Amino acid sequence: DVLQLSPGLCDITAHIDFSALKQAGESVGLQSYSYISQGAWLAHSPSIQQHLQHLAAHPTLESVAQISHAKRLMLPTGLGESFKLLIQGKGIEDTQCLTIASFNRCDTL
Questions:
Q1: With a threshold of 0.70, does the pTM exceed it?
Q2: What is the model's pLDDT at position 5?
Q3: Would you give the end-to-end CA distance of the chain in angstroms?
């Protein structure tokens, strides 16, 4: 199968103009809560951290591989800084879980 031989043919990377996306959302009444790197978001996720702690407490070849994959998604040298999230919403009362203040870069958009 060609796709197995050339996984790059399946690349779904998209280049997003987050400033335009933020503006478009706000123009229809959405509030922008957070613009953050994937790494920061995942590293501060309680469920991700709990899962990683469980994997580390029960080391196997599979758990070490999963931790390695997680690091690739979180660390700045991997995909952690390359990929971003823009979190917008409307009518949300408890927004505390939508942002990590020290990593929020909404003001840069």
A1: yes
A2: 63
A3: 42
